[in-house]
Design a protein that fits this description.
Layout lengths: L2 E6 L4 H12 L4 E8 L7 E4 L2 E7 L10 E4 L3 H12 L4 E4 L15 H4 L11 E3 L3 H16 L2 E10 L6 H14 L32 H13 L5 E8 L6 E9 L5 H9 L4 E3 L13 H4 L5 E8 L6 E8 L3 H17 L17
Parallel strand pairs: 1-2, 1-5, 2-4, 5-6, 6-7, 8-9, 11-12
Antiparallel strand pairs: 3-4, 8-10, 10-13, 12-13
Helix pairs in contact: 1-9, 4-6, 4-9
Length: 352
């Protein structure tokens, strides 16, 4: 079965990663179209060993495709996703525009795959925030086993989460500091090179940032409304890969070894957890780049609460945090028979 697929925002970090993953996972696409803003006309992007010319979103006919991946930001999604969805094209949106819409499913396939069937309310499915996606993959098996009452998480998020210009800023500031140039912030509120910034997205009235709020409300929507979560989200001077230090208060007892074995057997997770001075003792962001899995290390009991577990969680934010999760959602739709072959009208036989 072959499908016709469009990738909106194909020239961005996540859009290009979507094209990579569609090709790597042999998604059954008969045709793939790279779509971007008018200023990208004439540019090409890679799709396997092919180069795709960029189409102008204003001129592209979305009624000719079955599925649209959107990674062009919230304002573009708000304008275009409903228009595209009305053309009998399912939209999987990577922005925050529709995540908290009660009529739009917010999906991480390892966690709430059944939710994809709610796509038909608006023909849109939302991809969660990058930091939420890897977190709920790790929380799901523990919550199913004993229940999670409270999550305290600190994130260490790479600059790619803020876009290509943010990665360029880290690169240019780092080079400049070595030749005594002043590190002028543009994409971030403060210098990012050789620094950490405890602010991701805008501040809210209660002192949280929007990123911290997103982690709370998205975890509740995806996993369980009764889970309490507090987050501190920090931008760090790495290019790709988000890390999280996670502390859980559980509803029941779970030993360290039980937790380790449970996570080892769970989909989408790789446990790398040894207390030895070798390269296999834990995973850092640089080691997760280009990988599919959510990596869990440093599993241990938190003795400050009655049933406490702590661990370290790392994932490639451009993959599981964005592009991979979106493609997995599409694969779920495919497996459930929602996505159909390309839209070709076949005339009935003459004697029908």
């Amino acid at each position: 079965m072959a499908l016709r697929v469009a990738v909106v925002g194909a020239t961005g970090n996540v859009g290009q990663e979507m094209l990579n993953i569609l090709e790597e996972r042999l998604f059954p696409s008969d045709e793939v179209f790279a779509v971007a803003s008018r200023k990208s006309i004439g540019r090409t992007v890679s799709y396997g060993d092919r180069e795709l010319k960029c189409h102008d979103i204003e001129q592209f006919d979305f009624s000719t495709v079955d599925l649209c991946f959107m990674s062009a930001g919230g304002s573009v999604a708000l304008e275009w996703a409903p228009k595209i969805a009305l053309q009998d094209c399912i939209v999987i949106d990577n922005s925050s525009a529709f995540r908290m819409d009660p009529l739009v499913p917010l999906v991480v396939p390892e966690v709430n795959a059944d939710a994809v069937m709610g796509y038909d309310e608006k023909n849109i499915i939302a991809n969660p925030n990058c930091s939420t996606a890897q977190l709920v993959v790790a929380l799901k098996p523990i919550h199913d086993k004993v229940g999670i009452e409270r999550v305290v998480v600190s994130t260490y998020q790479s600059t790619s989460g803020a876009g290509r210009e943010a990665m360029d800023e880290l690169w240019n500031q780092t080079k400049g500091i070595y030749v005594n140039q002043e590190a002028e912030p543009r994409e971030f509120s403060k210098q990012i090179a050789f620094n950490v910034i405890p602010q991701i997205d805008d501040f809210m009235e209660d002192g949280r940032t929007k990123e911290e709020w997103k982690m709370e409300v998205e975890t509740k929507k995806i996993l369980d409304e009764d889970i309490e979560l507090v987050a501190t989200c920090v931008r760090v001077p790495t290019f790709v890969g988000h890390a999280e230090a996670v502390h859980l208060e559980l509803a029941g007892a779970l030993t360290e070894e039980e937790c380790r074995n449970l996570l080892r057997e769970s989909p989408g997770i790789m446990v790398v957890d040894k207390r030895e001075s070798d390269e296999e003792n834990f995973v850092t962001p640089i080691e997760c780049v280009g990988e599919w899995a959510t990596f869990i290390s440093r599993i241990r009991v938190d003795k400050t609460v009655e049933h406490g577990i702590a661990f370290w969680c790392v994932s490639d934010n451009l993959r599981k945090g964005a592009a991979l999760n979106a493609v997995q959602i599409a694969e779920e739709l495919l497996n459930r028979g929602v996505l159909k072959p390309e839209k070709i009208l076949v005339p009935p036989p003459a004697d029908a």
